[in-house]
Amino acid sequence: MLLWIAFSLMTGAAILAVLWPLRSVAAGVPAAASAAEADLAVYRDQLAEIERDREAGLIGAAEGEAARTEVARRILRASAEAEQQKAASKGADTRRRAAAIIALIGVPAMAGGLYLFLGSPLYPPQPLAQRLEARPDQTDIAILIRKVETHLEANPNDGRGYEVVAPIYSRLGRLDDAARAWSNAIRLLGSNATRQTGLGEALTTQAGGVVTAEAKAAFQAALAADAKDPKARYFLGLAAEQDGKPAEAGRIWGALAADSPPDAPWLGLVRESMARVGATPAPAPAGAVAGAPGPNAADVAAAESLTPEQRSQMVRGMVERLETRLAEDGNDIEGWLRLMRAWNVLGEAEKAKAAAGEARAHFAKDEGALGRIDALARELGLGS
Amino acid sequence: MNPEIGHYALVLALAVAILQTALPIWGARTGDAALMRVGPVLALVFAGFVSLSFATLVTAYVQSDFSVLNVVENSHSAKPLLYRITGTWGNHEGSMLLWVLVLAIFGALVALFGGNLPARLKANVLGVQGSVAVAFLLFILLTSNPFIRVVPAPAEGQDLNPILQDIGLAIHPPLLYLGYVGFSITFAFAVAALIEGRLDAAWARWVRPWALTAWAFLTLGIAMGSYWAYYELGWGGWWFWDPVENASLMPWFAGTALIHSAVVMEKRDALKVWTVLLAILAFSLSLLGTFLVRSGVLTSVHVFAADPSRGVFILAILIFFIGGSLALYALRAPTLRQGGIFAPVSREGALVLNNLLLTAAAAAVFVGTLYPLALEAYNGAKITVGPPYFNLTVGVLMLPVAFAMPFGPLLAWKRGDLAGAAQRLMAAFGAALVVAALAAYAQGGGPVLAPFGMGLAAFVIIGAGVEIFERAGFGRVPLATAFARLRGLPRSVFGGALAHAGVGICLLGMIAETSWNAEGVAGVRVGQSLNVGGYELTLDRLEPRSGPNYRDLTGVFSVRRGGVDVGTIESSKRLFTARNMPTTEAGIRTLGLSQLYVSLGDELPGGAVGVRAYWKPLVTLIWLGAVIMALGGALSLTDRRLRVGAPKPAKNKSAKKPENVVPAPAE
């Protein structure tokens, strides 16, 4: 509200700047002297000054006389012009009215219009000091992170700080930072399932959805801490699938589905994954409450109709990006192995085979790399 | 303060500027005093809004308001307060706003102190000023808006380019802009005169002080920029013929010509039409300079491609103002009355020579700077026009300027006596010969031209003194009278002589530095030393330090000459963490008028560090000379007398019968 009042006052000042001088003339201020008359005034001043200079002895009598003659000549010329310039101004009232209307309507219309187009009047100012002092809430995430970062800079061994900030990094897509924060939290606070799965998930997302060896190790560590951790189990299943072991993936997911409470949010994803590898959802284990409703048919149908396409679309995009990157710089053996796995998972055996061939060409002189490529090709059943 | 207030103030300023363009000129055309009277009020209100807008932006920078995109891109909360303030104009958008602020302040000054101007002229001048403001505000608001906000606001900014984190940024751009924009006033006067079709006597009175003000600021701005580049870039050079430097040099040449031709116009009512043209050229080149620096039009054609809207906008502004004013000039100049005539050998003649040489120099720089750009745009060929071209063209043009400089003030108006002037300069000439001989003896076998150059510089400096002596009449009249006359001399005479001496001093520094500088480059370990120019620099220690937003490695050198301790020099390499960008902080020690310059290079294997050291004899004179020039301009500016150039009566008559003078014949 205050802002709008300020805007109005400023606009008012601009309008007044036009209206005020118009009015003062109407009130009877004499018209300006003509240009030639002003010239004459200047010349008369010059004459007076020459006289002063001569009296002060700054110029000789002769020079003074010459200068006076010079000025006198200019005066004669100016007087002649002044006579010609006595034209009166007509239509003054109409012009003034027009000017007033332009000021009254044009200024607000133009300034207001352009400002509404360009400005952000509803967005308050955000001086840094004020943001840092404000009570912490979830609205200013940038400041939240900044505070934690400042704190961690001063106390680099505060594992809690890393644990707080890591998931926020993940949410903002700062995956490098997220992975580093989770690692620090694990180093300082010890391993537990949440931290390890957080690390594994960050690494997996960073690798474009492929569970790398490092990520896999993290998920395994999570299971070591909590054998039932559903997220770690899901991703380990995914790792098995990407390693070309659909049967094992199906087994892991089957067990996960069997262990999960019937309303677990991840069940849809797990069942869909199982369908992908051709495993049938395992029957409810004996210990489960009999007659507990499983996900009904509609749920499954909805999940299947909605996600698989989108999911595979997304994965495919990631894999293609990886492929482009490797085409530009082929010296990344991990990248090639990931690409082979990824094509295999997507059911593109030919592409996986082609990737293996290209990788071999790139690492023709590297025995170790060749060995790994061949081993993976055998594992995925691509022939060699 | 809410950034939106600044944004709205800027938009409102545009509306006001449009009215300021339209109403007073309309009033002047119809002879309506009321409409003309609107001009000054609007100019003041305009200055108020622009100041408010600028203050808001500075506040956003000081408070690190990262909801403003411009602040995010160019500031960092860890920056010291001074650099948070200067960062406001250390970027394209902010610097454009500073430009408009200076324009607004100058416009307000015309409105406040233009009371004795003919109403019509004043109205037209303010109208033309308004049109310049409209063009710049449209450019800012539509293509370079500093008030654009960003949601959500980041918690930290990207920091200012480290090279700009220096006191130089606080001083250099504002000075340069005061110079550039100062020429907008003379431009406005010139165009106003063309619109009206007549050149008033008041016109001449007003153009000289404004041209002088702009010129003095521009001189300081260029010198400051040169010194800044000298100590911050770490190469030890003080002029690189870089396009950005050339951009400021062109208006300087045109402006220098302008202040001289304005003198002729004021005193002798001559060269009016030419002065109008120079006023237009000086501002046109200022516009070009502004845009060259900030938009990178020059350094790369591709900037146009990268941001077409901005490039096309700039081009349109340039075409409108330069093309428009020149067209108006072509149309109206023939109707302007030419001034008095004069003999080739006269004060006017000397000033015409000065004008011709200076404009030729400006043209040479213009061609050398823009030709590569035009060529690249035409067929993609990349060529570089380097120092050899500029030294040959500008250098050769400046030689006669320097040589003729002491002669001009000694010649009489209308018709002068060259032999007489030469005779009076014999003392200066003799002194110059002595200086040249001394220089030749001192350097042993150095560059052949150096003693000649030193002699020329001495000639210019002493020649400036001779003028004062001659005016006072020392040696011709009794000593007491001469002193009385010395005291009575107008300040503009002292100012002119001072500025001319400044040129000579500047020349002295340039020639000494280029001819006799010494350089030493070596990898040095702690405890080892390096010899340059007779000084022994020993690296005492290397220590890491840290500042608010950087870390650096500082080398501390002790300086000895012939075993005698002279002092220490600290030179460092800085790494600015936010942008991960290194800068060199050269260590400079001033010894008398000369300087030792040490710049630290990379760390070499084995604990050594690359060190580049220079001995720069008399180098400070380059900038000292420029400051003296500007002081001369300021001194001349305080002389607010009306001046009429009195032609000297013909000799044979005046000597006998001074009371019976025949005035010089009219034109």
CATH top level class name of the domain at 208-285 in chain A: Mainly Alpha
Topology-level CATH name of the domain at 208-285 in chain A: Serine Threonine Protein Phosphatase 5, Tetratricopeptide repeat
Q: Find the count of extended strands of chain B (DSSP E, 2+ residues).
A: 9
CATH topology name of the domain at 1-165 in chain B: Four Helix Bundle (Hemerythrin (Met), subunit A)
- The CATH architecture of the domain at 1-165 in chain B would be Up-down Bundle
Please estimate the helix content of chain B.
55-70%
Structural class call of chain A reads mainly alpha
Subcellular location (chain A): Cell envelope
Protein name (chain A): C-type cytochrome biogenesis protein CcmI
Transmembrane segments (chain A): 98-118
Keywords (chain A): Cytochrome c-type biogenesis, Membrane, Transmembrane, Transmembrane helix
Give a verbal description of the structure.
- The complex is a heterodimer of chains A (384) and B (667).
- Among the domains of chain A are: 145-190, no CATH class; 208-285, Serine Threonine Protein Phosphatase 5, Tetratricopeptide repeat, CATH 1.25.40; 311-380, no CATH class.
- Helix content of chain A is 74%, strand content 0%.
- Chain A has helices at residues 2-26, 35-56, 61-84, 92-118, 128-133, 141-154, 159-172, 175-189, 193-206, 213-225, 230-242, 246-259, 267-277, 297-328, 333-345, 349-362, 367-380.
- The longest helix of chain A is centred in the C-terminal third of the chain and has 32 residues, at 297-328.
- Residues 25-32 and 282-307 of chain A have low confidence and may be disordered.
- Among the domains of chain B are: 1-165, Four Helix Bundle (Hemerythrin (Met), subunit A), CATH 1.20.120; 405-516 and 624-639, no CATH class; 518-616.
- Chain B contains 21 helices and nine strands.
- In chain B, the strands form two sheets. A five-stranded antiparallel sheet of chain B has the order 2-3-4-5-6, with no helix packed on it. In chain B, strands 1-9-8-7 form a four-stranded antiparallel sheet.
- In chain B, helix 5 (92-113) runs antiparallel to helix 6 (119-143), helix 6 (119-143) crosses helix 7 and helix 7 runs antiparallel to helix 8.
- The longest helix of chain B is centred in the middle third of the chain and has 33 residues, at 347-379.
- Chain B is globular.
- Mean pLDDT of chain B is 85; it is low at 300-305 and 645-667.
- The chains are: A mainly alpha (384), B alpha+beta (667).
- Chains A and B meet through helix 1, helix 2, helix 3, helix 4 and helix 5 of A and helix 1, helix 2, helix 6, helix 8 and helix 18 of B.
